[in-house]
Amino acid sequence: MSESHVSKREENRKSIPYARYGYAGFVVLGLYMLVFTHEWMIGVSNLGIALIFDPFDQKVSWSDRPLYQRIWLIVHLVLIASLLVYGLFIR
User: Fold this and answer.
1) What pLDDT digit, counting tens, does each position of 53-71 carry?
2) Whole-prediction pTM value?
3) CA 15, CA 85: separation in Å to the nearest integer?
């Protein structure tokens, strides 16, 4: 392996945990707001902000990602959209 390839892998390994921590933190905060404080729109917005922190490898393009990662992110997005519609128009 070349040195640049190893350094890119090291850099990627360092950046992924921060994104996962950010994703997990905002998901937990969003669920806390929804369940315990009943602040509906704040909870939904925190769940939406969680998507900014891609929990998977951010350097891989969408078409090259494994199917389970794409399904996970699409389900998360659909859940947020559903909760947003519910919070704005039904609740």
Assistant:
1) 988 888 889 999 999 999 9
2) 0.77
3) 33
